[in-house]
C-alpha cells in the first residue's frame, strides 16, 4: 500500500458520537457532586449516562482524566465587573460568587478537594479552572481601585484578592455545602475591607445568620 492510498483510507470502526461525550460529561459532574471524587467510579458514570463502561474507557483511561475533562467544561461566571466604584464592584463580586452557577462550581470544587494532594494533574486543573480565575478577577477589581485612588499604594492586592474565594471555599469544605450570600457579605464587611485599609461595615440584617 502506498503512502497516498494509506492516507485516503477511511477510518475503521464506528465514528465517535459527540452526544455520548456530552452525556458522559454531564453524568460525571452529577456523580461527582453527589458522591465525591473518591466514590466516583467509571461504572457509576456509565450507569448515570446510560452507556456501556467500555464506551467510557475508549475515551478516558482513568477517572482522573474523565474528571479533568468534565472540569474543563465548567465555565467561569459572568464577565468583567467594572462599575467605577470599589464598593459596588465588590458587592457585585460577592453576588456573583453566590449565583446558582457559582454554587454548582463550588460543589464540584469541594468534591475533588480530597484527591488534590495525590493527583497532580487534578490539582493543576483545579488551579486553572477554579482558583486562579477567581483571584485574577478580584485582583483586577482591586488594581483598578488603586489606580482610581480608592486604595493606598502599600495595600497587598495579591493577598487581599485571595481572601474571598479562599474563605468561600473553606466554608464549603467545612460545612459540606456552598457558602451563601450572607457569608460572602460577612467576609467583605469584616475581613476584606479592613485588609484593604477600609473601615469595616455593619452587616445587613439579613446577613447576621451565616449558617
Automatic annotation (TrEMBL):
One of its GO terms (molecular function) is transcription cis-regulatory region binding. It comes from the Bacteria. PROSITE patterns: HTH_TETR_1, HTH_TETR_2. Keywords: DNA-binding, Transcription, Transcription regulation. Gene3D superfamilies: Homeodomain-like (1.10.10.60), Tetracycline Repressor, domain 2 (1.10.357.10). Signal peptide: none annotated. Residues 41-60 bind DNA. Residues 18-78 form the HTH tetR-type domain. Residues 1-21 are annotated as: Disordered. Residues 11-21 have a biased composition (Basic and acidic residues). PANTHER family: HTH-TYPE TRANSCRIPTIONAL REGULATOR RUTR, TETR-FAMILY TRANSCRIPTIONAL REGULATOR. This is TetR/AcrR family transcriptional regulator.
Amino acid at each position: 500500500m502506498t503512502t497516498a492510498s494509506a492516507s485516503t483510507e477511511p477510518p475503521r470502526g464506528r465514528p465517535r458520537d459527540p452526544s455520548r461525550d456530552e452525556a458522559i460529561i454531564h453524568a460525571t459532574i452529577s456523580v461527582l457532586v453527589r458522591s465525591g471524587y473518591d466514590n466516583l467510579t467509571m461504572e457509576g458514570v456509565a450507569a448515570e449516562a446510560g452507556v456501556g463502561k467500555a464506551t467510557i474507557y475508549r475515551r478516558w483511561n482513568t477517572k482522573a482524566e474523565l474528571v479533568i475533562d468534565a472540569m474543563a467544561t465548567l465555565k467561569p461566571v459572568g464577565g468583567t465587573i467594572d462599575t467605577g466604584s470599589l464598593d459596588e464592584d465588590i458587592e457585585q463580586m460577592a453576588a456573583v460568587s453566590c449565583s446558582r452557577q457559582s454554587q454548582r462550581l463550588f460543589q464540584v470544587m469541594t468534591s475533588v478537594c480530597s484527591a488534590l494532594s495525590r493527583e497532580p494533574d487534578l490539582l493543576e486543573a483545579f488551579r486553572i479552572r477554579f482558583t486562579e480565575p477567581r483571584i485574577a478577577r478580584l485582583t483586577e477589581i482591586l488594581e483598578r481601585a488603586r489606580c482610581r485612588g480608592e486604595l493606598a499604594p502599600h495595600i497587598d492586592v495579591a493577598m487581599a484578592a485571595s481572601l474571598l474565594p479562599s474563605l468561600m471555599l473553606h466554608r464549603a469544605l467545612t460545612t459540606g455545602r456552598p457558602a451563601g450570600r450572607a457569608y460572602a457579605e460577612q467576609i467583605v464587611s469584616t475581613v476584606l475591607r479592613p485588609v484593604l485599609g477600609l473601615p469595616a461595615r455593619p452587616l445587613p440584617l439579613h446577613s447576621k445568620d451565616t449558617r
